[in-house]
């Protein structure tokens, strides 16, 4: 694969004692990540911070800073797993954790194949939501099985009665009342089929929704600007990242919400600002599967100094 190192290693530069960590910058439809291997990250921290290493949350905030760091929507740490072919930890650019990131999972799959961490076309990744099955065809076509959507209020979670689904429910806001449908794909999503939004409104409305006590753990907000039965154009405000070029778990939530509202078929193309994803909600096993690309942007080395100079 072009631009992919055969091995990610922690190295020491020839200049004095500067300790360097190799990383891979990757993206899925513009949703971008800094990817490192757990054992290398651990060695980097042990050698560079004898007096006590910073938290993974702090590392993610500084590494993902687009002005002072490498720049990314999130940090991915790839590890081994006792129950799956590999594991991962995902941290948003603001330092918050998430058990699910669909675009990130495809990047994990691409990295693992390119670096010979797996040697088969179908394998599993351990996540906080459970094992995720991956089918790898090429860097342009990676399918992840995100499992069954979570639809009960208490498990998404949102406010209200625990047994009820949140489908076409009115949510009063400062300037208007919106109809929303809520889904969890391991992380909470609020889906809004409102084609008459002005582009400038997205951010204001998304921030108000994300701060609403109806969503005790925050929420990803998806606005569907245009749709028919097999296509949907979507803009996403991601929890922990803000506006993003792509969010695969949001694409999954959009399809599920569209089916529940009888606006979309169970198989559709969800087009995000960064490009399209193929999404299917199976009526056989109730699983949602997403197919899309994962691309290496560049590789490099980062010094422990980044954790000292980034605000």
Structure, explained:
- With 311 residues, this protein is α+β, with helices and mostly antiparallel strands.
- It has two domains: 10-147 and 295-309, Diaminopimelate Epimerase, Chain A, domain 1 (Roll), CATH 3.10.310; 169-286, Diaminopimelate Epimerase, Chain A, domain 1 (Roll).
- 19% of the residues lie in helices and 38% in strands.
- The chain has helices at 38-48, 56-63, 102-114, 201-210, 248-260, 306-309, and strands at residues 10-12, 19-28, 31-37, 74-79, 86-92, 122-127, 130-138, 141-145, 169-172, 177-184, 188-193, 220-228, 231-238, 242-244, 267-272, 275-281, 288-292, 295-303.
- The chain has an 18-stranded mixed beta sheet that branches.
- A hairpin with a 2-residue loop joins strand 12 and strand 13 (231-238).
- The model is unreliable at 1-16 (pLDDT under 50).
**What helical percentage do the residues reach?**
10-25%
Assign the CATH superfamily of the largest domain: Diaminopimelate Epimerase, Chain A, domain 1
- State the secondary-structure class: alpha+beta
Into which percentage range does the β-strand content fall?
35-45%
Radius of gyration: 20 Å
Distance between the termini: 35 Å
The total of helices stands at 6
- CATH class category label of the largest domain: Alpha Beta
Give the number of domains. Answer: 2
Taking pLDDT < 50 over at least 5 consecutive residues as the criterion, the unreliable ranges are 1-16
* DSSP summary, beta strand count: 18
Q: Under CATH, the topology of the largest domain is which? A: Diaminopimelate Epimerase, Chain A, domain 1
Q: Overall 3D geometry?
A: globular
Biggest sheet layout: 18 strands, mixed
């Amino acid at each position: 694969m072009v631009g992919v190192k055969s091995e990610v290693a922690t190295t020491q530069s020839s200049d004095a004692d500067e300790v360097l960590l190799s990383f891979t910058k990757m993206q899925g439809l513009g949703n971008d990540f800094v990817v490192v291997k757990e054992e290398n990250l651990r060695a980097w921290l042990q050698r560079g911070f004898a007096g006590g290493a910073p938290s993974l949350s702090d590392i993610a905030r500084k590494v993902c800073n687009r002005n002072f760091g490498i720049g990314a929507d999130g940090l991915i740490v790839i590890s081994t797993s006792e129950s799956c072919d590999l594991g991962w930890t995902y941290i948003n650019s603001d330092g918050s954790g998430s058990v699910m990131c669909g675009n990130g999972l495809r990047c994990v799959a691409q990295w693992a194949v390119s670096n010979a961490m797996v040697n088969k076309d179908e394998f599993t990744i351990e996540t906080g939501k459970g094992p995720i099955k991956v089918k790898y065809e090429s860097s342009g076509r990676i399918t992840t099985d995100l499992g069954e959507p979570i639809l009960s209020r208490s498990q998404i979670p949102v406010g209200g009665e625990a047994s009820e689904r949140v489908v076409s429910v009115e949510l009063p806001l400062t300037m208007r009342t919106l109809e929303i449908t809520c889904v969890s794909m391991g992380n909470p999503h609020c889906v809004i089929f409102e084609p008459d939004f002005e582009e400038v409104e997205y951010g204001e409305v998304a921030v108000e929704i994300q701060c609403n006590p109806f969503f005790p753990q925050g929420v990803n907000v998806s606005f569907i600007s245009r749709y028919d039965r097999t296509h949907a154009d979507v803009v996403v405000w991601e929890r922990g990242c803000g506006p993003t070029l792509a969010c695969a778990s949001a694409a999954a939530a959009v399809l599920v919400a569209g089916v529940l509202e009888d606006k979309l078929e169970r198989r559709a193309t969800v087009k995000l600002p960064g490009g399209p994803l193929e999404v299917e909600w199976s009526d056989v096993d109730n699983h949602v599967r997403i197919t899309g690309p994962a691309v290496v942007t560049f590789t490099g080395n980062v010094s422990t100094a980044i954790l000292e100079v980034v605000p």
